[in-house]
Structure formats: structure tokens, C-alpha cells
Amino acid sequence: MDRGVTDTFFYDNKIVRDFGIATVFWGIAGMLIGVIIAFQLANPDVNMGNQYTTFGRVRPLHTNAVIFAFVGNAIFMGVYYSLQRLCKTRMYSDLLSKINFWGWQLIIVSAVITLPLGITTSKEYAELEWPIDIAITLIWVVFGWNMFGTIAKRREKHMYVAIWFYIATFLTVAVLHIVNSYEMPVNFLKSYSGYAGVQDALVQWWYGHNAVAFFLTTPFLGLMYYFLPKAANRPVYSYRLSIIHFWSLIFIYIWAGPHHLLYTSLPDWAQSLGVVFSIMLIAPSWGGMINGLLTLRGAWDKVREEPVLKFMVVAITAYGMATFEGPMLSLKNVNAIAHFTDWIVAHVHVGALGWNGFLTFAMLYWLFPRLYKTELFSKKLANTHFWLGTLGILFYAIPMYWAGFTQGLMWKQFTAEGTLQYSNFLETVLQIVPMYYLRGIGGILYLGGVFLMVYNLYKTAKSGSLVANEKTEAPVIVPTVSNNAGHWHRWIEKRPTQMAIWATVAILIGGLVEFIPAFVIKSNVPTIASVKPYTSLELHGRDLYIKEGCVNCHTQMVRPFRSETERYGEYSKAGEFVYDHNFLWGSKRTGPDLHRVGGKYPHSWHYHHMMDPTSMSPGSIMPAYPWLFEQEVDLSTTQDKLKVLKKLGVPYEEEYIANANEELMKQANGIAADLKKEGIEVKAESEIVAMIAYLQRLGTDIKVKETQE
Question: Do the Cβ atoms of 575 and 531 come closer than 8 Å?
């Protein structure tokens, strides 16, 4: 067809508006839950004495709400708006767009229902159970189908840099989700990971780190490359830098997951790979930040006046700060102090609140006036939102950094006589409670700014009318006009299939190099003859530990530091976890490590501690768990659980499986009898007995030295 012929078509703005509203709604919900759990850590009464609202149950709801609901909807909003204009065509299918929208909202609602009920895998950022995992896969395929269909029918032959990041995001998230979600169902609401112990930890943090990389970073970099030049009315600073940024980022990022597992039982070679590639990440990450900030050259006067640009500048700066700090935290000497502390929480939230939050706010303020063909209702309110949000970040991050430094140093402090300065872990907790209150105030300030934005966007929408189908014209085939028309990279920018193939190759290499030796070479996980599978009662207790979210506050990984072996006991060995589906090493110590807690206290201590933590640990911020004393273990699931674990390689005998509940009651009656000797009457079938059985088993499979009381 002749290049001079133009075609009239309509952009779909309604789907962009829908995702925008969902972004705001779930943003408020997720941040409100975040404020609640911030104060729960400062004051256990805020747990409300209800099993559905404890920190352990609600914390994963917060992370899922802000990552997949707030940020997820923001990604779809930005991609659906920008992709149509970059490809100069309507989205491939209105039906697929609607399925994408409503399917994603239903997935979020399912998370809102299941997580407070304790239906969780416990794997960070992947807590949702297997039926929801399948739904996520299907809706993600719908999104990809719609995106690639739109790219295939584009009128602009050249694919702009933002589209490269969208393609890499879709492909990598698909690979991450499918590999990490390899699990075997027990029933509709329960499954066990297909991996165990060290391998499960490696896969999870390959996923967890790259969920941050390819869900919270790469799509937002694509959105930055589109919305920042639009808002500043300036071209991207450097085309060549964007090429280097893209390919080096997606190749290097995928290797860095093991830096979450430094000094653990993960093999040293895998830890070293994680460190090396994490340090290398500084270059592409800062290349992207520099490309963004220098795009504003000649437009800095606008930053003083335009709230959209204010949000973008702070967002990109926060991205630069977080991506410098991340590699620094990957250095072993820094990680030894920071890991398991609130320093990591501060680091994560600088990225989440600054980079993801502020760039999302900038997009919303930029989009709504254009969707409704009107002016923003109030720049003054938007500027107020900016300053409230900035203060909120500072009030959040600075106390958490302080708390993290305090924890890291107090845990390692020894007296002149060579004993632990703070042998009681609770001493380190009580020091940082004021920081938790300040963090909560920061969350209130940040959320207050969001409420101002809601009012501002509502008034903006009321002053105009939605252009649901925006009429536009474009040449049927748009020639590529650029100073870089002859650049070597152009051949792939016009070929989405080749782009997708090479991006997939780039992101698969790192994972394969780490996984194949870890799974194939048996010496990576030396076996320990004395390590046996959990008994049926202990397995139920372990599942209760997962259900209550104990892993959110307690680790099960004693690192080979003098301070930790003095405090907890013998350091953890890889062979101790071979039957752990899922692994429970944890990532944060709000309470002490539990890997060597077995046999350290009598049954009655655990009984009273779960009923009223302050009775055993005065000043404790742990909530009580009275429902464990009233509810009974579901014995109908015992055999099914053991059969699934046997299929996964746990050596349960058929005879043991057949008599599992009899063995369970025998062990439970023994614990109940021991408690009765101390004047405690408890039903052997109660959940607290199973929990005690599990806690008393932890770390007892190998001989450990005496721990200091």
C-alpha cells in the first residue's frame, strides 16, 4: 500500500482509565494495610486479638497488594496507554484487554480472601496457593497475547526502547513464575514446593530478587522512557545508552538472586556468583538513571513548576539510590551486618515508595487530564502531595536505617570477657520500638498524600469527560525517522520475534548456570545420616507455623558467625534441610532465630509463650495465639500430605503413612501428658500441641553444642 495513505483509528482510553482507577484503589488498600502492620510491630495490641489480622497473616497481604495490585495495575495502565501510541494502533483485542483487567482484579481479590485465612506457601512474593498461581499464568498469557498482537499490527515499524522493556518484562516474569511455582497439590488449598531446602531457597530468591527486577524495575524503566520525555517535552538523552542499559540490565540482573542467601547453607560458589553480578549491576542501573535525569537537560526550570516532573525526578533519584545500595549490601562484609535487620526494610522501601510509588503518581497526574481532555484540577494539591510523600519516605526510611544499624551492631556486640553483650534477643528489639512508631508516622504521611491525589484526580475527571475512544490518524506504514537509522541495533528493533528470542536467551543463561550444578551435583548438599523426615504431628505443626506467618519474623538459619553460634548454637548445615518443602530460612529477624530452639525450653514454656508472649518474655511485641489452643488439627489431611511428600522424595514408609494418625496421636498424647505434669490441661488434638512438637524438633537432628541462656 502507498506510504502516503493515512488510516483513521481509535485508541482505547477506557481500559487505561480502568487500570488507573484500580491502581489508586489498591494503592490505598495496600498502603493502609502497611500502616497497620507498621504499628503492629510497635504495639502487639494492634494485631486486634484476631487470627485473621495478625502481623504474620497480614504482612504478605500488604506485600502482594502493593506489588501486584498497586504496581501491577500501574504497569498495565502505563503499558496500555503507551503501547498503543508507540505502535500507532489500537490494542490488538478489546476482549483480551477486558479479560486482562477483570482477571487481574479477581486474582487480587482471591489474595485478599486467602492470605488472612492463612492459606499461603510462605514463599516471599509468591505466597499464593496453586489454583491462584494457575490463574496468574493464564491472565499473564492474555496480557502477552494482547501485547504481542498489538506489536504485530503496529504502523510504526521501529520499536521504541520502552517496548523492549515491556517484552523483557513479559517473558521474564513468565519464566520466573512458572519455575518458582513448581509445586504439588495436597488439596485445593494446600501444596508443597517441588524443591526442598537449599534448592528451594536458590529458586525462591532467584525468583524473589528478579520479581523486584522484572516486575518492579524493568516495566517501570520502560514507562520512564515513555512518560519522562513526554512530560519534559525532551527526547531521551542517549539512544546508545538505552541499548547498553537494556541488554546489560536484563542479562546481569538474573544472576544476582543468591546475594539474598549470603552466609547461609547455599554453596559458596553460588553465593560468590550472586555477589559478583550484584556489583556489576551498578553500571546498567546507573546508566538508566543517568539517561533519565539527563533527559531533563534544558528543562529543569519546568521541574520547579510541574508536579509531574517533581515526582519523576525523585522517582529516578530513588531508583539510583536503591540500585547503588543493593550492590553495596551484596558485599559480604556489609551483608554480615545488614542482613536480617530493618536496614533491608529501609532499602526496599526507598525503591518501592520512591521509585514505584512516585513514578506511578507522576503517570496518574499526567494521564488523567489527557484521558478526560481537561486540565489538572489543582497543581497546588499535587505539590502538597509531593512534599507529604517525600516527608513520608524520610520518616519511614531514616528510622528503619537507624533500627537496622542498631540491630546489626547489638547482635554482634561482645563484652571484654568474651560473652555476648546482649544475650537476650529481646533487648535488641526493645531498643528499636520507637523507630517502628516513627515508621508508622511516615506511612501515614505518605498515605495522606495519596488521599489528596484521589481528590485531585476525582475533581479533574469531573471537570472533563472521558474520551473512551480517542480518534487519531497515522500513515498506514510509518517510516522510521531517526539520526540513528543506520545503527547496527536497528535490525532487531524492527523484529519483535528476534527481540523476544534474544531477550529470553539473555535472561535464561544466569538461571541455568546457577540451577544445573545446584540440582545435578550432589556434593552441593552433603547428606547427614541422622536427618530424618518430620513425624506426622511435626509436619502438621510445621504447616501451622507456615499458616500463621511465623517465617515473617523468625529465621531458621544460624550463620557461621561467632555472635550467632554463641547466641543460638551450631551453625546450620545444608543437609539438615533436605526434607523441607518449603524451605523456611526467612529474611528478617524481628524475633530470634529458631533453628536450634528444639529442646532448649520445656513444652510448658512454648505453651505459655504462645498463649501470652509477655509471660515468658516481658516486653515482647509478639502477638498471642489463643486460637491454637481452641482449634484442632485436621487429621483428614495427614495421609494426603505424607503421600505428596513421598512423591517429592521424602522417604516415608508406606506402613508409616497408613498408620500416620495413630503415630500422630501417640506423640501428641505424650506431649499432653508432659504438660499435665506441670498442671496444664490440653487436648492432644489441639493445634498448640502440633506447634510445640514442631518447635521442639527444630535443629535436633544433629548434635549441637550447649547454648548460652
Answer: yes
As a whole number of angstroms, the distance between CA 550 and CA 586 comes to: 9
- Give residues with Cβ within 8 angstroms of 370, minimum separation 6: none
CB within 8 Å of 293: residues ≥ 6 apart: 313, 316, 317
Q: Using an 8 Å Cβ cutoff, are 279 and 286 in contact?
A: no
What's the CA gap between 96 and 146, in Å, rounded?
6
Beta strands in 463-536 (DSSP E): 469-475
User: Which 8-state DSSP code applies to residue 560?
Assistant: S
How many angstroms separate the CA atoms of 267 and 626, rounded? 40
Residue of 402, 321, 378, 340 whose CA lies nearest to 558? 340
DSSP secondary structure string for all residues of 674-709: HHHHTT----TTBHHHHHHHHHHHTT-SS--PPPP-
Cell of 205: 530468591
Read off the pLDDT of residues 64-115 as tens digits, 9 standing for 90 and up: 999 999 999 999 999 999 999 999 999 999 999 999 999 999 999 999 999 9
Separation of alpha carbons 160 and 704, rounded Å? 59
Contact (Cβ atoms closer than 8 angstroms) between residue 619 and residue 678:
no
pLDDT of 240 strictly over 60: yes
Give the Cβ contact number of residue 20 at 10 Å. 26
Task: Kindly report the pTM of this predicted structure.
Answer: 0.95
Q: DSSP secondary structure string, 194-229? A: SS-HHHHHHHHHHHHHHHHHHTTTHHHHHHHHHHHH
Number of residues that this document lists for the chain: 709
3-class DSSP assignment, residue 186: strand
Tell me if 293 sits within 8 A of 318, measured CB to CB.
no
Q: What is the distance, to the nearest Å, from the Cα of residue 30 to the centroid of all Cα atoms in its chain?
A: 13
DSSP designation for 265: S
Which neighbouring-strand residues pair with 9?
472
Angle, vertex CA 144, rays to CA 142 and CA 149, nearest 5: 100
